[in-house]
Amino acid sequence: MNENRNGVVVAVVVGALALVFLPALALLLLMGGPPEGPSCGPGTSGNGQTLSIDPDTVPEGTVAGYGHEQLVNAAYVMQAGKDLDLGVRDITIGVMTAMGESSLRVIDYGDAAGPDSRGLFQQRANGAWGSYEDRMDPYISSTNFFRAMMQVEGRDTLEPTIVAHRTQRNADPYHYTRFWDAAVQVVEHLSGVDTGLTTGPGGGGCTDGTTTPGEVSMTGWAAPSAGPITSPYGMRVHPITGVLKLHDGTDLNGGGCNGPIWAAQDGVVVFRGFDGAGNGTIKVDHGGGVVTAYLHMYESGMLVQEGDEVQAGQQIGKVGSSGWSTGCHLHFSVFVDGSTVDPVPFLTERQVGLG
């Protein structure tokens, strides 16, 4: 099928000219100059690599439990995403969703969602998903999925499973989580390049595996993460519980999922783990009765251990969305003698601006 769609090119930009062969796929990777830094933009991975794959060259065999027919369908998903100039994270979300909906098979029957669900994405008969023939064509159905996904507001800051859920609703928004690691493995196998995508609990970000130092002020303090401020310190209606209560910290966008989190000042890590609400948390004691707390990281995003000595501006974590969170961000709290204070004026006095 899709005789005119050969030459899937799923990109991703690399540093250092080189020519690499992937014998199993007979795949040539032509690499350009050094990237400016991690990127999940159009056709790129966190490692900035560029890769090519032709569905007709997918070899026999299995990857992550998926056989040849399924891998060919994954290649068509990748091609559709590339043709829309999407980045590798978006493309991998497409592969993950097809895994969760059809196990990467073009099936001519519906699931629990209804008798008319069809194809790789179990799409139903409506204007968004096209005709029966469209839904049964892996390239066209993937293209329609990605076009709908591109309308999801703030998708770069959302977990992959939530992006998939908001694109074509599932009874369980977290249904697709279990397929993320396999999707990364399949995309990397078919392309022959390390995408830089994180896996494991909280996976879904794009990283080059390095840490980024923060900027330290003349007072020895640093901003805990990048802005803007998305929710200030003070009374508010909690977005999950709907209860009016004190928001005891300042929420920062942090640059989206896997953005760097920096220690606000020199100190010792006194807590690293998950609190009672499931928030991935790091607490740092700076002495003099001052403690700072950093919330919503995933397990893989907490880069220090209890007892570690940290320096102002040292990256101690990666922005996540664990616990009571509706999207990737950093909740930053400051405690003085055991009580929270507004972080904005606290850091302003120390020549550090938030947001």
UniProtKB/TrEMBL annotation:
Any one GO molecular function term: metalloendopeptidase activity
SUPFAM superfamilies documented for this protein: Duplicated hybrid motif
TM ranges: 7-31
Gene3D superfamilies in UniProt: Glucose Permease (Domain IIA)
Keyword terms of this UniProt record: Membrane, Transmembrane, Transmembrane helix
Domain M23ase beta-sheet core: 246-343
InterPro entries: Cell_wall_metabolism_enzyme, Dup_hybrid_motif, M23ase_b-sheet_dom
Protein name in UniProt: M23 family peptidase
